[in-house]
Design brief:
One of its GO terms (biological process) is transmembrane transport. It is a multi-pass membrane protein. Pfam families: AA_permease (PF00324). It comes from Acinetobacter larvae. It is found in: Membrane. By secondary structure, this protein is mainly alpha-helical. It has one domain: Amino acid/polyamine transporter I (Up-down Bundle), CATH 1.20.1740.10. It contains 20 helices and no strands. Helix 4 packs antiparallel against helix 13, helix 15 packs antiparallel against helix 16 and helix 18 packs antiparallel against helix 19.
């Protein structure tokens, strides 16, 4: 079968299981930005600065952005020329092997499902700081109902809700950078002084005050900060005119993220001593979440109610992440059902075009994260972050590998590059380099003792995926 022909069932669904193309370019861009701008930036940025130093953090985020850009360029070629929802598993199944496609689908589902409960719990703990008499469980249930309503209503309603949730985060980051630069150049007061220390903090303690190793060790946190950009590929099958909108959304989202992330790191590093950029207090509880470097900078600039403002922003960031994560994970279950690797009921759509059962079951998969309130929030948060980051890196590696094989097979079938509606530049350098960088990032998880159990658990889960596929589905394929 040639790669340009339409594949038969199960990849071509019937009308009762066909998702509607109702997302526009602005939805795609905000979905990608919203998936990436979250606690990884508001909270994780301080940890990267504290460990790697000011310039080390800047270098780390530039490298992380370039890795994300290479992966998204590979994704662009696949998503435009093979536009399907639940795309990562489908891409891997077509271009690497059906067992790998099955594993990638479940790894991506695991990454998002595992973080849902922690997002709700963290948001509820923050709400309890405002309303201490109301139980965390009540806020958690309210947030779960709200995110379920957003996902069950319709794809268009989900896209609009995620657009406005993401807009809050984007505007906060943009305002932070603008005010920070104004303080750096002495245009506004900073901590009672007429002028901030310009950029002297960036090099005051040398470029890499803690050596080269922390730069490598923090790459998993940095790459996790860019997690969510790949949702453009998930949504390609529900996007109007994907040939035109997907490439534009990829370029726009990646470069905006680079500006936001690197700009944020430069502002924090220039205004705060790098030793004080990390979180103060327990990062698994509300106090630690509120006390991000964003709060410190806003307070030094003189923004009233800075902590309350950032608490609100972080709550919206957590809910936005849960909202988009539930969307992405449920579409993976939908895709597995379409490929007859889950019962047919998981691909059944409501009258509004949403996979109801897949959404509900994915939400149940996220509920164990609620146990973090009782069973050591720090340990559970850290390991779940590691699981989410590791699964994301595996998916990114599969995207690069899939594009590499897709291009080779495309040319082998007698097609020309001009036949591609979008093509990854600098082939094969981009997919090879992207794959290798992601592999190194994945190995950095094993070097962190606090994430070692999560690393081993992910490897066991991967092996279990392959084993279950070859035991249950291989002979039926």
């Amino acid at each position: 079968m040639s790669l340009h022909s339409k594949p038969p069932s199960p990849h071509t669904p019937t009308n009762s299981t066909t998702l509607k193309r109702s997302m526009t370019k602005r939805h795609l861009i905000m979905l990608s930005l919203g998936g990436a701008i979250g606690t990884g930036l508001f909270l994780g940025s301080g940890e990267v600065i504290a460990k790697a130093g000011p310039m080390g953090a800047v270098i780390a985020y530039i490298i992380g952005g370039l890795i994300a850009y290479m992966v998204m360029l590979c994704l662009g070629e696949l998503a435009v020329n093979q536009p399907v929802t639940g795309s990562f598993g489908a891409f891997a199944a077509r271009n690497i092997g059906p067992g790998t496609g099955y594993m990638v689908s479940w790894m991506y589902w695991l990454g998002w499902s595992a973080t849902l409960g922690t997002e709700f719990t963290a948001a509820a703990l923050l709400m309890q700081e405002w309303f201490p008499s109301i139980s965390v469980w009540i806020w958690t249930i309210i947030f779960i109902v709200g995110v379920l309503f957003s996902n069950l209503s319709s794809t268009r309603f989900f896209a609009e809700s995620e657009f406005w949730l993401s807009m809050i985060k984007v505007m906060t980051v943009a305002l932070f950078i603008l005010l920070g630069l104004a303080a750096i150049f002495g245009l506004i007061p900073f901590q009672g002084a007429t002028q901030a220390p310009l950029f002297s903090n960036l090099h005051f303690h040398d470029w890499l005050p803690n050596g080269l190793w922390p730069l490598f060790a923090t790459m998993l946190i940095v790459n996790f900060a860019f997690n969510g950009t790949e949702m453009i590929g998930i949504a390609a099958g529900e996007t109007e005119n994907p040939e035109k909108n997907v490439p534009k959304a990829i370029h726009a989202a990646i470069w905006r993220l680079m500006i936001f992330f690197v700009g944020t790191i430069i502002v924090i590093s220039a205004l705060l001593p790098y030793q004080h950029a990390g979180l103060v207090g327990d990062a698994g509880h509300g106090a630690g979440l509120s006390n991000s470097p964003f709060v410190t900078v806003f307070q030094y600039i003189g923004i009233p109610y800075a902590e309350d403002i950032m608490r609100f922003v972080i709550i919206t960031a957590l809910l936005s992440t849960a909202n988009s994560g539930l969307y992405a994970a449920s579409r993976m279950m939908w895709a597995l059902s379409i490929q007859k690797q889950l019962p047919k009921i998981f691909s059944k759509l409501s009258s509004r075009g949403t996979p109801v059962i897949a959404i509900l079951v994915t939400m149940i998969g996220g509920l164990p994260g609620l146990l973090s309130e009782q069973f050591g929030a720090d340990l559970i948060f850290k390991n779940l972050l590691g699981v989410a980051a590791f699964t994301m890196v595996i998916v990114w590696m599969s995207i690069c590998w899939s594009q590499f094989n897709f291009r080779r097979q495309w040319l082998a079938n007698g097609h020309s590059l001009t036949d591609l509606k979008f093509k990854t530049p600098c082939y094969p350098l981009v997919p090879i380099l992207g794959f290798l960088c992601c592999a190194v990032t994945a190995l950095s998880m094993a070097a962190d003792p606090s994430m070692l159990s999560g690393f081993i658990g992910c490897l066991i889960f991967m092996a279990g995926c392959y084993a279950s596929y070859y035991l249950l589905y291989h002979n039926k394929a």
